[in-house]
Amino acid sequence: MRVADFLEVLDHEGRLLAAAAAAAGPGADVPPCPGWRVRDLVRHLGAVHRWAAALVADRATTPPPLGDPPERADDELVNWYRDSHRLVLDTLAAAPADLECWTFHAEPNPSPPAFRARRQAHETAVHRYDAESARGGEPSPVGREFAVDGIDEPLRGFHARERSRLRSEQPRVLRVRAVDAGPDAVWTVRLTAGPAMTVRAAEGEAEAELSGPAEQWYLALWNRTAIPRVTGDPALAALWRERSGI
């Protein structure tokens, strides 16, 4: 996906989130985030938007502290979030293609503007699902291409980092497949005592396969729904459930 595609998704998802938060009310529970109410969700994501906008605008090469979200009256929160969302959108849209600023994924490694647009789009989409869960009713769909990208990002990005807990003392091989997204929507994850090594291909034999529709898998990878389907070694699937949280 291109930077413009991520910005389009970010715009759409942020608008949906604000509408859901307003409908739910600031005191509503957020079921996917135990202990949070809508006011906590809105304050958190608004602060993340402002943090990302400042990082890009300042061309920061080290991550600034996120800090605590500002205190806002309940009746001001949604409008404050809308301002935060517009700020990060405008900042990312204005960023030059050769911008240098801090990123943290080892692989794949897009340009900093692409990285930041992608990260903000997925952060917002997942929390939009949270806000709609608080509101009740059917959640908005996740586009298939975007969902596939949202599977790829944690597998080849987050879990390639040193801080990932997705490890195994004994080498294991796991397959992940989005069954409705074509033959390229498959990943082979090799687990060792170090960070996971993932390729986007069906390479060799796998001891277990986790599969399902792209949207469902996307939400499962971000700890919002259960793994759609497991075949093969159930112990490897259990290891995934225990250690893959982001």
Structure report:
- By secondary structure, this protein is α+β, with helices and mostly antiparallel strands.
- 48% of the residues lie in helices and 10% in strands.
- The protein contains seven helices and five strands.
- The chain has a five-stranded mixed beta sheet.
- Helix 1 (3-24) runs parallel beside helix 4, helix 2 runs parallel beside helix 3 and helix 2 packs antiparallel against helix 4.
- The protein is globular, with a radius of gyration of 18 Å.
- It starts with a helix and ends with a helix.
- The mean pLDDT is 93.
Taking all Cα atoms into account, the compactness measure Rg is 18 Å
Helix content range of the residues, please?
Answer: 40-55%
Q: Proportion of β residues?
A: 5-15%
Number of helices: 7
Strand and helix order = HHHHHEEEEHEH
Structural class: alpha+beta
Shape: globular
Low confidence ranges = none
Number of beta-strand segments: 5
Oligomer: single chain
User: Going across the major beta sheet, what is the strand order?
Assistant: 3-2-1-4-5
What is the arithmetic mean of pLDDT? 93
Largest sheet: 5 strands, mixed
Distance between the termini: 22 Å
